Amino acid sequence: IDTTGTGNGITQARVPGNVEPNVIARDTDGDNLWDGFTGTGYLDMGSDIGDAASFVVNAPEAGTYTLTFRYANGGNVNGVNGDRPMAVTVNGTSAGNASFPGTGANNWDVWAETSIDVTLQAGANTIVIANTIANGPNIDRVVVTNN
Known about the structure:
Blueprint: E1 12-14, E2 42-44, E3 52-59, E4 63-72, E5 86-90, E6 93-98, E7 112-120, E8 123-131, E9 138-146
Antiparallel strand pairs: 1-2, 2-9, 3-8, 4-7, 4-9, 5-6, 5-8
């Protein structure tokens, strides 16, 4: 995922040693990150409407593909542990909003998956995900499958 972003701000790639706010008291392995992520870190989608990240998917053929996001959403939205939807665009065209429901009130160590179907062209496709409300989820990985 390219964290250069296209929205109001730039999302933060979180890797060991890059302090995640409000984590240190709960950190069990000393890396200053929420636990349970895969790989070397995760993407903190920021705290402003429009904060965004982009990535390129090379599709072998045109068609419908499913984007499956592994994410955490332990924060409160309007006082409840609610959805933090994100706008999804493919090659500059809206593909709709992906829903990122709460994964546990005030518990960012709980990870879940959510999916959205998108239409890709053969070859390179630029996909942008952007916060539609203040405070986005943490994104651990994106898996792209051909339907």
